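Long-time lurker, first post. I've been practising inverse folding by hand and with some scripts of my own, and I keep getting stuck on stretches where the structure tokens seem ambiguous. Below is the full token string for one chain I'm working on. Before anyone asks, I'm not after the true native sequence, just a reasonable design that respects the backbone. If someone could post their per-position residues I'd love to compare against what I wrote down in my notebook.
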């Protein structure tokens, strides 16, 4: 399948996995000073893996993920990815759900 960059206010992403799989893998590039929306999901778990840079994770707790570390996000857990450094961060997200076509995100807007 063709994969291309999709621009967002926080940076860009592209899908790395095959469609119609129970695991959807995306590569996110978050620009310095930008963040994804604070959100949670009703039906899916996520796993974030930092491949470049340092990620600030906000939610019920706030902490830093260094390069080559991961963060598991269970259903209904609030989470937000923030790039507070001078260089873009690269994070792979793994969306784990029985039906990936369902958009189950609820959020608080963009940073």
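-- Answer (accepted) --
I ran through it position by position. Result:
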């Amino acid at each position: 399948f063709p994969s291309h960059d999709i621009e967002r206010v926080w940076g860009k992403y592209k899908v790395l996995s095959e469609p119609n799989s129970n695991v959807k893998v995306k590569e996110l590039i978050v620009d310095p000073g930008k963040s994804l929306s604070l959100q949670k999901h009703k039906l899916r778990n996520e796993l974030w893996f930092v491949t470049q840079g340092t990620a600030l994770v906000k939610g019920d707790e706030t902490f830093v993920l260094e390069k080559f570390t991961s963060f598991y996000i269970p259903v209904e857990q609030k989470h937000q990815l923030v790039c507070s450094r001078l260089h873009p961060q690269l994070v792979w997200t793994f969306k784990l759900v029985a039906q990936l076509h369902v958009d189950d995100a609820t959020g608080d807007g963009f940073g």
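A couple of notes from the structure itself: DSSP finds no helices and eleven strands in the chain. The mean pLDDT is 83. Happy to go over any region you disagree with.
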